[in-house]
Amino acid sequence: MALREIRKKGDPLLKKPSREVGEIDGRVRQLLEDMEETLRQVGGAGIAAPQVGVLRRLVVILPWEESGLEQPLFLVNPRLAAAEGAQECMEGCLSNPGWWGKTIRPQRVRVEALDREGTPISIEGEGALAKCLCHELDHLDGVVFWEKAICQVFPQEQSQ
């Protein structure tokens, strides 16, 4: 496994749509492992392949208390299959460190994807997990949250 450099705001690659993964081979699995290691190193919740410079539809999400996950999610070619409700969210991003903003995201989502072995899976997320899934799927479409934010909230305001 290897740590990958995280692309930052202003990198044109972050604004490009990702291509679907064809065959899930050793290179794809290695990239997913590298993404997981990078995510653990920086302490984030989720990461999409474009954030490490690869325009492929790959996402890794680590478990955290509010997620309801028991193990990491490795999503290949994920797509939003259903969404309902709305929630106002506080979001940050590894590609724009120190910047926080409020967004409106679905309250509940269902995402369909392949796991890292190529098995079809369906993930249902609510609240914080729904927010994270939508945030990472946006990255795959070249959409960055800071352009969708309804307002910016500075770090000191976030804790209030």
From TrEMBL:
Active-site residue list: 136
Binding site for Fe cation: 93, 135, 139
Domain of life: Bacteria
Reactions that this protein is recorded to catalyse: N-terminal N-formyl-L-methionyl-[peptide] + H2O = N-terminal L-methionyl-[peptide] + formate
Organism encoding this protein: Bittarella massiliensis
UniProt family annotation: Belongs to the polypeptide deformylase family.
Co-factor(s): Fe(2+)
Protein name: Peptide deformylase
InterPro entries, per database record: Peptide_deformylase (IPR023635), Peptide_deformylase_sf (IPR036821)
A Pfam family that the UniProt record links to this protein: Pep_deformylase
Role description: Removes the formyl group from the N-terminal Met of newly synthesized proteins. Requires at least a dipeptide for an efficient rate of reaction. N-terminal L-methionine is a prerequisite for activity but the enzyme has broad specificity at other positions.
Keywords: Hydrolase, Iron, Metal-binding, Protein biosynthesis
GO BP terms, alphabetized: translation
